[in-house]
Design brief:
The complex is a heterodimer of chains A (about 190) and B (about 475).
Chain A (H helix, E strand, L loop, with lengths): L1 H4 L3 H23 L2 H17 L10 H22 L12 H9 L5 H19 L2 H12 L4 H8 L3 H25 L13
Helix pairs in contact in A: 2-3, 2-7, 3-4, 4-8, 5-6, 7-9, 8-9
Chain B lengths: L8 H12 L5 H13 L1 H16 L12 H21 L4 H11 L19 H14 L1 H7 L2 H10 L22 H9 L3 H16 L2 H16 L3 H16 L3 H8 L4 H20 L3 H17 L1 H8 L4 H8 L3 H15 L13 H10 L2 H8 L3 H21 L12 H9 L3 H8 L3 H17 L33
Helix pairs in contact in B: 1-3, 2-3, 4-10, 6-9, 6-10, 7-12, 8-14, 13-14, 14-21, 15-18
The chains are: A mainly alpha (about 190), B mainly alpha (about 475).
Chain lengths: ~190, ~475
């Protein structure tokens, strides 16, 4: 990042290559569909480029990077909310689609379990509030500490601790029936807001 | 131990989650573990939380689409160009129009902000002209950092000049040039050159004060040195060599502040570079050479498009060159384009071209490349294309391994030499003849300056003969 700050274009390309999949993994679960996630990802990299001169070596890069990501995502979601846009998630398949494929014999049983599980977990994650979701994604997939997540979300570490606890409680409530008895998560599963 | 009555259920789960994430202090860990040991319900809650967390692993990574990287970099390139245009257009439009009208008879038409009479320029452009001598070599100054480093490079005689790069022409000094003439010079730049200059200006202004002063000080020290021209040439060679390093090696070099430590690192990197080229077989070198030729021939149209942006004189000069000279010019153009990041987007060879080249290399070299990311593979190949033509001359006795020079072209080059020159060369021992002929060929193609600290070959009448042949002397022609 220091090289990017000093206008080294090759370093910027390497940064994009190193972070694009990681960023996409997080955004995919925040944005609702892959297209919007890619748009957000590009917006974030553009913002990183424009902000490169503000980067201080004392800051952990991942924290700085995901702070920018959080700002871009928050602004985007706020704009969409103001415009009353409803995201139509273009998913490859939902839990019902997966079960339909299974009943038609199109999907082998072992793949069905994996695909079903993945879809259910994704649905559970996307049903919790965005801020909780982002905290979970940064903790799980980026391995950020509570302090780093707090910096990225512009919150306190204690707030992040509470956020993550509520998120995991919500996820547990949605997923517990599934992993205990194979029961699909209900549409009306209640979720603790932040 | 009995549960802490003050701990609510949600507070307990908060502690359990933080415990799973390793975020509790030692005392809190101790308290939780006491409860886990004593209370099955707490253990059950922990297990469920852990199970839920593990289920998130099912999500897996979501890789980006195929064109994501390319479109992202192009988008940022466009943004960068917009920034430069905005920097250039910082002078209000009305004032620019007045200047153009006022100065139409004095200066050639120019892009906004730079073509006006000096006195009418706002402070920012006046400052630009004052900083121009520094800005022209800004990136080089930033990498060199210290005149002692340059002096040590010269003392060590490290040859960093990339033989496939254009020669370092001694530019007329911009010092003490009247401001109006400087303004005229800037006005005559092409739009691309103006954009580059504006970007350098922005980069310089973004440095903190002590960094700017350091660069200006370095500029003055070089200017005042008795060997200013040579130091500038060494600085330019170093910068071109440095640009081709991997980010890792660049970072390593940047972290070394003392000139001797940097020199030692450079020597190590040069040795590694040499080792890499030594691993190439005759077949590999032939494959690289043939691929280069075919690539240049296949994509020559791109170079012709670039030629259209040059002046008619430069276009004619290129057309008048011999085929092999045109090929080297075109190759140099692509070498610039092949830098990972160029204005207008990434123009490195398409993946299928690189795959075709790899398929022609020896199994050992293919095995060496195959585990590396594509960008790293291309960087290594670029390194070969960069260093091989010169490497023969760096090796002791000039008997280095292979060169990218085509023997047939050298034969044609020899035939084109004046008769006297041919006779002198033929009087040389065969291996020295070969060496000297290739050196002259490359000099002609690249208009190379003499090697650092060494005079021309055996015909200059100076000290010992061609590089690497310290014991050879020209035949005594006295009668």
């Amino acid at each position: 990042m220091l090289e990017v700050r000093d206008d080294n274009a090759a370093a910027f390309e390497e940064l994009v290559l190193r972070y694009q999949d990681r960023l996409m993994t997080i955004l995919r679960h925040l944005a609702g569909d892959a297209g919007q996630a890619e748009d957000l990802a590009q917006e974030i990299f553009l913002r990183v480029y424009r902000s490169r001169k503000t980067y201080e070596p004392s800051a952990k890069f991942a924290t700085w990077f995901f702070t920018i990501a959080n700002n871009v995502v928050s602004n985007s979601l706020r704009s969409r909310s103001r415009r009353h846009e409803h995201t139509v998630a273009s998913r490859d398949s939902g839990p019902q689609d997966v079960l339909l494929a299974a009943s038609s014999g199109q999907m082998p049983a072992r793949l069905l379990d994996k695909a079903e599980m993945r879809e259910i977990v994704r649905m559970a994650l996307e049903s919790i509030p965005e801020r909780q979701r982002l905290a979970v994604l940064l903790c799980k997939f980026e391995g950020l500490s509570y302090a780093d997540i707090a910096a990225a979300l512009e919150a306190t570490p204690q707030a992040v601790k509470s956020l993550l606890a509520r998120a995991r409680i919500n996820l547990r409530e949605i997923l517990q029936p599934y992993y205990e008895s194979g029961e699909l998560p209900g549409k009306n599963a209640s979720v603790n807001d932040e | 131990m009995s549960p802490d009555p003050a701990t609510t259920e949600s507070s307990l789960e908060e502690q359990l989650v933080a415990y799973l994430d390793g975020e509790l202090d030692a005392e809190a860990v101790r308290r939780i573990e006491e409860r886990l040991a004593a209370e099955p319900e707490v253990r059950e809650t922990l297990n469920r939380l852990e199970r839920t967390w593990e289920m998130l692993d099912e999500l897996g990574a979501t890789p980006v689409g195929e064109s994501f990287t390319q479109t992202t970099l192009e988008m940022v390139a466009v943004a960068a160009e917009d920034d430069v245009r905005r920097a250039m257009a910082e002078v209000p439009l009305r004032r620019r129009r007045r200047w153009r009208l006022a100065c139409a008879g004095v200066f050639a038409a120019a892009a906004a902000g730079f073509g006006a009479a000096f006195l009418a320029l706002p402070n920012s452009n006046r400052q630009l002209l004052a900083d121009l001598p520094v800005l022209e070599n800004l990136e080089e100054y930033r990498q060199v950092d210290d005149i002692e480093f340059l002096r040590l490079l010269r003392q060590k005689g490290l040859s960093l000049h990339p033989s496939s790069e254009p020669p370092v022409e001694e530019r007329p000094s911009l010092e003490n040039v009247p401001a109006a003439d400087l303004a005229s010079r800037v006005a005559s730049l092409s739009p691309g050159e103006k954009a580059d200059l504006a970007q350098k200006k922005a980069s310089f202004e973004n440095l903190n004060r002590s960094e700017r002063e350091k660069i200006q000080r370095l500029h003055q020290e070089i200017r005042n040195d008795a060997d200013a021209a040579e130091l500038r040439r060494i600085m330019h060679d170093y910068y071109l060599w440095w640009k081709n390093l991997s980010p890792y090696d660049k970072n390593e070099l940047s972290s070394l502040s003392s000139p001797p430590a940097r020199i030692a690192r450079i020597e190590l990197l040069k040795q590694e570079e040499l080792k890499r080229t030594k691993n190439l077989s005759e077949g590999d070198v032939a494959a690289l050479r043939d691929w280069m030729k075919q690539y240049v021939a296949k994509f020559e149209d791109r170079y012709r498009e670039y030629l259209k942006t040059l002046s008619p004189e430069k276009r004619k000069a290129w057309e008048d060159k011999r085929p092999e000279e045109r090929r080297w010019d075109t190759l140099r153009f692509f070498r610039q384009q092949w830098q990972p990041w160029q204005r207008g987007g990434n123009k490195s060879p398409p993946p299928e071209e690189l795959a075709a080249l790899r398929a022609k290399l020896s199994p050992e070299i293919q095995a060496m490349l195959q585990d590396k990311p594509p960008l790293e593979q291309w960087r290594i190949i670029q390194g070969w294309l960069h260093s091989l033509p010169r490497q023969k001359f760096d090796a002791p006795g000039g008997r280095g391994p292979n060169s990218l020079v085509d023997e047939n072209e050298i034969a044609e080059f020899f035939k084109g030499l004046p008769r006297e020159e041919r006779e002198r060369l033929l009087n040389l021992p065969p291996e020295i003849l070969q060496h000297e002929l290739q050196r002259r060929y490359l000099s002609r193609m690249n208009q190379m300056q003499p090697f650092v600290g060494r005079p021309e070959g055996p015909f200059s009448g100076g000290p010992p003969g061609p590089r690497g042949f310290p014991d050879w002397r020209p035949p005594n022609k006295s009668k």
